[in-house]
Specification:
- The protein has helices at about 10-20, 45, 65-75, 90-115, 120-140, 155-160, 175-185, 190-195; strands at about 1-5, 25-30, 35, 55, 60-65.
- Strand 4 and strand 5 form a beta hairpin.
- It has two domains: about 1-80 and about 190-195, Glutaredoxin (3-Layer(aba) Sandwich), CATH 3.40.30.10; about 90-190, Glutathione S-transferase Yfyf (Class Pi), Chain A, domain 2 (Up-down Bundle).
- The protein has about 200 residues and is α+β, with helices and mostly antiparallel strands.
- It has a five-stranded mixed β-sheet with strand order 3-2-1-4-5.
Length: about 200
C-alpha cells in the first residue's frame, strides 16, 4: 500500500492508522498547490479529486476519503483493535465520531486555511468550533479515548484536527480535557512515528 499525504494535513490521521496497524506501507508526499507528488508524478492523474489522503492498494485500486481509508486499514489488522467489529454497536459509534470530526470540526477549520475567506466567515467558523470542542471536551473528560479505554482510528483523526488549533489562534487551554487528551494520544509510539516521518517533530 502507498499513502499519498501532505505533512500535517488530514492525511496524518490515515498515516497514524497505518503506523498503528503494523501493516507494510510506503508514503509519498504531495504538493497540493502544484498537484505534483514527490516523485514528480501528476497527482491529478492519481486522484482526480486532487486532495489527500489517497491510499493506493496492492491491487492497484485507489481508496480515497480519510474515514474510509482508516476503516479499511483497521479492518486489515483486526488484532490491533483499531475499530470495533463491523456488526457491533460500537462500530456505529465510531462512525458517528468519524462523521462528527469530519463535518463539525475538520470542515470548520477549512475557512482558516482557504485564501480569500472573509473575516465574518472565519468568525462564524470559530464560534462553531468552540461549541463543538466544548462538547468533545465534556465527552472525553472521564475517558482515555473517544470510545473509552481503547485507542481507535477516531482518536488519530481527532488528534490530527485538534493539532490545527495552534495555527488559527484557537487556545485549547480553555478545555483541559482536550489538552490532556492531545498529550495522551501524542505520546503513542505510532503517532510519534507518523509525525516524525512527516517532519512535524
Amino acid at each position: 500500500m502507498k499513502l499519498f499525504y501532505k505533512a500535517g494535513a488530514c492525511s496524518l490521521a490515515s498515516h497514524i492508522a497505518l503506523e498503528e496497524s503494523g501493516l507494510a506501507y510506503t508514503t509519498e508526499a504531495v504538493d497540493l498547490k502544484t498537484k505534483t507528488t514527490a516523485s514528480g508524478a501528476d497527482f491529478s492523474q492519481i486522484n482526480p479529486k486532487g486532495y489527500v489522503p489517497a491510499l493506493l492498494l496492492d491491487s492497484g485500486e485507489l481508496l480515497t476519503e480519510g474515514p474510509a481509508i482508516m476503516q479499511y486499514v483497521a479492518d486489515q489488522a483486526p488484532a490491533r483493535h483499531l475499530a470495533p467489529l463491523a456488526d457491533a454497536m460500537a462500530r456505529y459509534r465510531l462512525q458517528s465520531w468519524l462523521t462528527f470530526i469530519g463535518t463539525e470540526l475538520h470542515k470548520n477549520f477549512s475557512p482558516f486555511f482557504t485564501p480569500g475567506v472573509g473575516s465574518d466567515s472565519r468568525a462564524i467558523a470559530m464560534a462553531t468550533l468552540e461549541r463543538r470542542l466544548a462538547y468533545v471536551a465534556q465527552h472525553i473528560d472521564d475517558k482515555q479515548f473517544l470510545l473509552g479505554d481503547d485507542f481507535s482510528i477516531g482518536d488519530g483523526y481527532l488528534f490530527t484536527v485538534l493539532g490545527w488549533a495552534k495555527h488559527v489562534d484557537l487556545d485549547l487551554g480553555k478545555w483541559p480535557a482536550l489538552v490532556a487528551y492531545q498529550e495522551r494520544v501524542g505520546a503513542r509510539a505510532a503517532v510519534q512515528a507518523a509525525m516524525k516521518a512527516e517532519g512535524l517533530i
